[in-house]
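Q: Structure tokens for this one, please.
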Amino acid sequence: MTRHRDTVTRAYEALSAEDDGRSCRDIPNAACRAQPQNFLRHAAALGLNKSADGLVDPKLVLSWLMTHLGAPAALIGLLVPIREAGALLPQLFTAARIRAMAQRKWAWAGAAFGQGLGAAIILAGALVFEGAAAGAVILAGLAVLALSRSVASVAYKDVLGKTIDKGQRGTVTGLAASWSAVVIIAFALLLILFSEHRALIVLGALGLAAGAWLLAGLVFAGLAEARGATAGGANAFIDALANLRYLREDRQLARFVATRGLLTSTALAPPYLVMLASGGPGAALEGLGALVLASALAALLSGYFWGRLADHSSRQVLILTGLSGAAALVLTLGFAAAGLTAVPLAMPLALFVLMIAHQGVRLGRATYLVDMAGPELRAVYTAIANTVIGVILLASGVFGALAALAGAEAALALFALMAAGGAWTAKGLKELGDGSED
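A: Here is the predicted structure, written as tokens:
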């Protein structure tokens, strides 16, 4: 047992760069002593979760799968709205219920099992049905997955704040993003190298994702999480509406939500890059592997870096990602204007830079929110922010379609302005990193 504990501690120190014996700053002593094993469990469970996410990407993998199965275009168009709105909009109503749980790791573990079930339903629909029936079953599985993810999103940040010290949160999430990217790179390479078996590879990826989520739930359930306060756990629609008052009362929260809303441009833009790069038969099929590969490489090369920087200043991460996202989109527009979209390395390069920015946005916003909200408000603030962003993303489906009427270039120009605006609003956020005054 002692040898195992020493091995865990050494692994933690190597991965976290924490070997100076510094005491924890904002978690209890018991949680501090358990931090090495908790750090590794977070990195493993979150990495499994992120790997499964990449294997069941609605914007890429599921849209291709439904097209392959002959599902109607109207059903394919529902993939992203169901995934995004289903994952975010329910959170305002689930936060209070999760708050009533003394140990919220069980909420995340249960949600992981739910996502595994959703992936299994999607796989079953693809194996058994075709056409509209397959599309309907896949959308039903995606709805189960998205709703489960909404619970996991609220619970995770609160458990992270209770079990991992302030100076290591960005590092553990960045580490998970980096190692899970290796899985997605392997998936992308399989899609590219064995294109004639792409359908079989996608089906296998769905089964692997279901298993990864089940394993993630088991790993996360083993966290050493102390029982916490459960006050304020009443779950009612009136309570949910009352929570919105924090947007008026806390100007930093309102500014953070505005920043996050503008930075959704890094998530909304990739399909339009693919649209510009497409041309001729088979372009969409080749684009599937290329986009997955670009996204995975960006996560692998930038996740740990963004995590370490977020521990120093998540505000700076949000500023830099807004600027780099805008730069990537301007670069894309430059390639389009110069007629270089068909050049092999042009659009993949622009997409790679954009995905690096998006990786930073995801990590920076999560770290900033956990550091900004105290233990009593983490779940509530997370739910408020995610619900507002859910509305923005739901509306963006209509917004993107209208913008695309003027061409993909017009939509990308608008997203570039949004990313730059996100960097500007992030500049006004309070500094919460290592350099801040506590």
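A few notes: The chain is about 80% helix and 0% strand. The two ends are 38 Å apart (CA to CA).
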